[in-house]
Amino acid sequence: MKKKSVLKKLSLLTACALTLGALSGCSKDTAATNNSQPENASQEAPADDSQAPQEETPSAGQDPIVITAWHDNDEAMMNALADVVNQALSEENITLRFEKKSDVAGQIRLYGTDAANGPDLYLFAHDALGGFAEMGILEPVENLIDPTKEADLLPMTLEAATYKDVQYLMPVYYETLLFMYNKDLWEGELPSTTEGLYDYMTAHTDTAAGTYALVNQHSTSYNVAPFINGFGGYIIDKDANPGLDTQEMKDAITYNSKFAALQADGDYNTVTTLFNEGKAAAIIGGPWLISGINDAGINLGIKSLSDFTLPNGNVMMPYSGVQCLGVLKVAAETKKDAITKVLEVLTQPEAGIMLAQNFNCAPANSKAYEDAQVAANEMILAMEKTAQNAVPMPNIPEMGVMWGPAESLLAAVNKSGEDVDSAASKYQQEALSAIADMQ
Amino acid sequence: MENTKKKYLPWLYCLPSFLLIGAIVLFPILYTGYISFTNMNLYHWQDYTFIGIDNYVRALGKVDSGFLSALATTLLWTLVNMVLDVAIAYVLAVGLNTDGLRAKRIYKTLLVFPWAMPAYVSILVWRVGMFNTEFGLLNKIVTSLGFDKVDFLSRNVPAFISCMVLNLWMSLPYMIVMIDGGLQSIDKSMYESAVLDGANPWQKSIYITVPSLKKIMAPIVIMTTFTMFKQFDILYLLTMQKGAVSGSTLQTIITYAHQNAFVSNNYGLSSAVSMVIFVIIILFSLWTNTAAVPERKGK
Predict the structure, then answer these.
(1) Which of B12, B27, B40, B42 to mutate to test the interface with A (most CBs of A within 10 A)?
(2) Model ipTM?
(3) Residue A88 lies in a domain
(4) What separation in angstroms does the CA of B223 have from each of A104, B180, B284, B288?
(5) CATH code of residue A158
(6) Which pLDDT score is estimated for A24?
(7) Within this chain, do residues A141 and A126 fall inside the same structural domain, yes or no?
(8) Alpha carbon of residue A86 to chain centroid
(9) CA-CA distance, A257 to A259, in Å (whole number)?
(10) CA-CA distance, B159 to B73, in Å (whole number)?
(11) CATH among 1.10.3720.10, 3.10.129.10, 1.10.10.10, 1.20.1440.130 for B14-298
(12) Least CA distance to B129: which residue of chain A?
């Protein structure tokens, strides 16, 4: 009987402990909001991720300040970028620390106003800007940094970082799609027109045998954008009007569909594997494919998509995605000076040169291209050339709901064989409905 | 005093569980309900206000031909999958319990494997390893027989069948294990009596096995029906994942709601849609429970 009673008490105690343990996850990270300096604070950034950054105090020049930035890029690249900044700011006692997160855009939406658990900065493609700006969670970069210090940044990147005439973001580097080919497989000269490319594909593709001349994610709007923009079409205009059923868009989709028929199923995994395994002679892709291509030992050649002329006389015009740093308003309120110094370092060419030399990124800073090693990088030169015609991805919030209908439209035509007119009309309505649902 | 203690002590023991359930289950539902009455969206992220039932009017306005088509697909999906799931699992479980079958435990362990794998991994493995036009096993077989490659996921009917096959692959182990457990509990003497009475295997199955399993199977079938009804990940990851849209337009009510409300970042509207779906599922639950009760009482 006594044993039973002890067991009851023990079970009650265990249940209480379990409950408290579970609920303790709901507590706030009080350390992050504590302005006092921890006793063991050192001059270096804390190695433990759970340790919260110190906030700026009146004696900011003396105290170590850690700026946390979330990203979803290659960690080695982000650490190298942090090293450049930290080296430049070592005497200021300011440390930039990158933390990798999956679904950065979603995380920023959740933690954008959370000073205790959210980051100070984030590094992400510029197309998410409009949504964050409308949420009111971003501090405009133009409030933090003197515009003259951005004089060397490429105009295209500044355009991408601006929403409703306010520059919210600091461009770091940009990406565009490129024509990448296997020099060991490609026969003869590269064509200069898309028709020439199509003729080559017709002659060198055997879908039954699984060998292809060129593969592309033919039903992904980002990858079809070179055709869409080249034909004068648009997924959404600056006034948030979707353009899926415009004649230019339908012409572009129709034109792309004949290429799609010779490009396997167009899924990312399929096309990259085909290229890396030597079953496709060329691929339309971005610099993010490079590590896999190098690992596969492909003898890679690169050409700008701007070097291909469409039947209407225009060149192919891909989207450009500019990777930018955004500053959260809650961070700017407490760490303004430190963040400004970080941004100032990033306006200098050194960060861009490092990213170009080590990671094949096209810097946003035009001065970085004067570096001899950068100037000799075939991929970066191709991206720089493409950037002259590239169209920055729309950064209005409505673009966020356009990827789905646009991709469904392309898949309907390329994969399900639907009529372009009826599919365009259907997905235009879906896009309008999705935009209306945002309000 | 002792009676009072006896009366309240069980509640005290249950209190931690109630707190946990309240925090983990009840609070999100109540909070979603609260958000559904506000205009919380990208444009009113911090300054959202109470707007009454506007979101519900809009959510119910989505009960259009697209929603009805998705509902019909959901019901068909649930029905076909449940029938096949139970039937195939029953046959396999009975087969695994055949007297004299060697290495039973190995078969049972192997059969549980698909259930133990994370769903996300299973689905992606099937998408690339089975259905892919270039590398998929099915297309390797199709082309080796001299036929053209088949894109199994680009049109609605083959996509439905493909999703169903994968769903069965993932859900059968659970059903087999449950039926297997039920079979172990049937008194063997009933079969021996049946044999003495001259019953054949079919009659033993219909008159002994199936009736004996009914009690055990009722809650399992109800639970699995819900899992099938609210299926999302298989259909989404096989046919409509961003960057890998397959071309089919299959929609269940959950994928339809996701596409029509959740991608918009309009949290007020998507909360209202969630609450409507929640009510539909609760009603469905009440209906299935009501349908199951007389049978249970009858037994």
Answers:
(1) B42
(2) 0.79
(3) yes
(4) 35, 17, 12, 10
(5) 3.40.190.10
(6) 56
(7) yes
(8) 23
(9) 5
(10) 12
(11) 1.10.3720.10
(12) A270
